[in-house]
Amino acid sequence: MKLLTVIISLFSLCTAKSWPNFILIMVDDIGIGDIGCYGNNTLRTPNIDKLATGGAKLTQHIAASPLCTPSRAAFMTGRYSVRSGMATEAMVGTFVFSASSGGLPQNEITFAEILKTQGYSTAIIGKWHLGLNKERNSDFHHHPLNHGFDYFYGTPMTHLRDCIPENGSVFFTGLVKVTEYLFPIVCLTLVTLIFLNYTGHVKAPWRIFFYFLLCIVILLVLCIFYFWNFRYLNCFLMKNYHIIQQPLIYENLTQRLTKEAAHFISRNKHKPFLLLMSYVQVHTALYASQDFRGKSKHGIYGDAVEEVDWSIGKIIEVLKKNQVEKNTLVYFTSDNGGHVEEISSSGEVHGGFNGIYKGGKATCWEGGIRVPGLIQWPGVIEAGTVINEPTSNMDIFPMIVKLSGSTVPQDRIIDGKDLLPLVLGKNVTSDHEFLFHYCNAYLNAVRWNQRNSTSIWKAFFFTPNFNPEGSEGCFNSHVCHCYGVSVTQHNPPLLFDLSRDPSEKHPITPETEPNFYNILETIQKATEAHQKTIEVVDNQLSWSNVIWKPWLQACCSSWFEFCYCDNDEELGMS
User: Fold this and answer.
1) Is 68 among the catalytic positions?
2) Catalytic pick from 14, 37, 61, 68?
3) What predicted TM-score, i.e. pTM, was given to this entire model?
């Protein structure tokens, strides 16, 4: 019966009138435990759940990185982010300023670029977060339209607390604390040096010190000014190359994104299309429209999740209305696990739920990298399919490239594996024998899907320090870090069998596993072979590439009007 289903599915695929459409849905920071079909019974996600009952559910779907920027770079290219330089060795692992010079390199190939050559209309609606400008504030070197997309409506940056008034700040609180200690000392020293200079008691070396302190004061003032106005400089809405709202107004934003998606589908119903629906939610600061605010059982976070579910339902309705649902593959996922450290100033939990899995965003514990993965294609993928094999969000790249009638690039290593044979039942084992889990640019852990065995081994070379030990939060930090005092190194590596211990509570030891050292030896050999394939490339997330550069600042008006405009009604709606 299973073989007959596969034959019918493949026949339907081969005899389709045209290449399939693709809707790729990525929700920002949603936890696998937030979704009904993955076990949640307190949040209402009926439309997302229908994707599972109507198609395939991936239970071991892995994000290529536990952070936004590197995860999205890997997703778009089918390659580990270290290959493109979109993974850092520094503390800041994502782009936080719109006027940074780093971004997805032009020599990387996205699935949008390939599908565009096949005659597809391509669009990204929502969050980009892979860079904007490189040398001047209007070169748009890293813009989505220069990476294969025909249409962009959304925000080029991530979404932070600083973007919404009265939601606190990721930066300003810490900066004020530093200033409180440093500013009085520096000012007192400056006043003393000015007095001594006036009385003629300051020698040349002290004058140099005086100017050095003066520079520090000026720098502190500029930093305070910048972060005080962070919302105007970094939180804005774009349509293609135009800024149409600065600062971004979050009221009804999810509805606006949904309306744009509906228009795009309707405009392209007679030709193949690719839509990347990249929701700004549920990254903090959280928001929800009036129709959803206060309606869930989990505060503003739950309201935001349920509004995203509503939006997905509306998109599916548009597919049906335009009679393209049966020729459209819909994929749903998150860029990484829920952010368990996210707590509001009032103590309300603003981060996602990762179910039974340990840790969360920014860690390579399962809670940081195991994400929802749902694929629906009516008439092709059998309803109710469940895949328990390890898969990656990088696998979407080769799958949709092949389905578009094109071929996967042969001039570079593609780490993703075509998912279609697995979800159709043609293959019963994942093509991923090994998956490599990076924390920024550091190889953190390796997963071994041992052939002819029920075991799935995972070895950690280091783990983040929790406080207290075993809790969900990282030590004195808003996010976990990947090196130095923030981590504990393990030699030999810390080993788990995920098939028996998916919560990573009980490390394997030589006493509990006779093949302990043989397993680690196999993983070490695979690691060495993998690392030999990693070439040195420009680090797009180096300090010099992520810092704010005034000449790259995107602004919809003159500086005298301080980067303000609101033309969303005029330009934003198609």
Assistant:
1) yes
2) 68
3) 0.91
